[in-house]
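Protocol step 6 of 9: fold each sequence in the batch and record its structure tokens directly after the sequence line. For illustration, a two-sequence batch is reproduced in full.

Sequence one:
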Amino acid sequence: MGHLVRLNQGETEGVVRDYLQREGLALQGVWLDRGRALGPEVGSVGLPTTIFYDAQGRRVDAR
């Protein structure tokens, strides 16, 4: 079974925490990218983007 990591780009921890709390979601497994560096690094041209990696850490797909 794989792992799901959610990444928020550009918002503060407080904004993300408030949203997750309102939606009944846990903060666990959420990473913050305040500088919005990951999108360009992985070739994302829009949000939301779902990126799939294999067990060896190689990118295998993106949607």
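Sequence two, same batch, same settings:
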Amino acid sequence: MTDLSILIPVHNEEGNLPQLIDEIEQVMPRGSAYEIIVVDDGSTDKTRPQLLDCMERHLRLSAIAHGRRAGKSAALKTGFDRCNGRWIALLDGDGQNDPADLAELWPEIASGSDGMMYAGVRKSRNDGLAKKYTSRIANTIRRRALKDTSRGCRMRLQGPAR
């Protein structure tokens, strides 16, 4: 059984993806039962050929490709439907999430009980001004709608995680 599915939605991540996949494979603890699932959301650059090359070198890697861009939410839905792990970790394809953070946290998660959700907050972003403002507005709406005051913490869920 797969314990962890690492889901990475991507769009036009040429040059970022091979390094990210290599890094995940380097930092995850030996003996961990995990899979890496990449959903290519209609990339128009060389992301797809690079992904196919990565699949030849990394047996834990599988990929799904949207024929045309459907958006990050659709890519996540496609990926969630494919995940086999008891736990699902999301990483961005642009390299702004450090796989070493996941690898460090994984032993605690794996030994924990069902019904826990672990969330992290980026310390710094490499986004442009428009992306930063858009994210800030979306996060404010999300926090108000969910009455969520958390900033990167463990939260107890009422039901099973999946």
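Proceed to step 7 once all outputs are recorded. Observation for sequence two: The first helix runs from residue 17 to 27.
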